Amino acid sequence: MKAVIFDLDGVVVDTAKYHYLAWKKLAEELGFEFGTEHNEKLKGVSRMESLRIVLEVGGIEGLSEEEKVAMATRKNGYYLDMISNIDESEILPGIPEFLEKLKNNNYKIALGSASKSGKMILEKLHLAEKFDVIVDGNLVERAKPDPQVFTTGADLLGIPCENCIVVEDAAAGIEAAIAGGMKCIGVGSKEILGRANAVVTSTKELPEVDLETL
Ligand code: G6P
Ligand code: MG
């Protein structure tokens, strides 16, 4: 048996832009600009690690744990507002065709996302039933680049890690796949995702990737 484990934000759906916009809004309220040049660092990392990166950019130090949790919760509120009306139109191109192809070729399909909203988003997109296993931020403790989110998916599917292929848009996710002993396909630029077994510039190209020769 073989499996493909999908990251969510930036791979299945275009939510990465909303994560960014929500952090940017928080940064503006704190009195600094959070430009797109910092966005790459937020991809794939947990909510609290993202906050740490945002505060570092703003040069804000010395906050208590309670204050940090309150800020991360505030950002999550903005994010949830932004995605409240998300629908199938935000599924990234090629993903429905790729899921169909995997199913026809007897691949198991899992989600491996750090986001605590992962399952809810798949449900809103009417994609949840296409996934054999859904692992999101509610099921795991350790964030990417730790492989826990992917190895948990492989365990729940009952498929050895070396038979799993991860699809990821974040450098932290590629590192997590490698650490878990899995193959991986990067979606984005070769400069950032060069350690993946294959890199495509857009999800549109995923159905054409030869999974057998990765
Ligand atoms: C994904 C995204 C990150 C996000 C993380 C946690 O990995 O790529 O940008 O910070 O999930 O998401 P959450 O919805 O739980 O704040
Ligand atoms: Mg991602």
Give a brief outline of the structure.
The chain is of the alpha/beta class and 214 residues long. It has helices spanning 16-30, 39-42, 47-58, 65-82, 95-104, 118-124, 148-157, 171-179, 190-193; strands spanning 2-6, 107-112, 133-135, 164-168, 183-187, 198-200.
In helices, the fraction of residues equals: 40-55%
**Rg (CA only):** 17 Å
Sheet/helix structural class:
alpha/beta
Number of helices: 9
Question: Could you give the count of β-strands?
Answer: 6
Shape: globular
Largest sheet: spatial strand order: 3-2-1-4-5-6
Unreliable parts: none
Order of SSEs, N→C? EHHHHHEHEHEHEHE
Mean pLDDT: 96
Largest sheet: 6 strands, parallel
| Spatial gap, N to C terminus | 16 Å
Strand portion: 5-15%
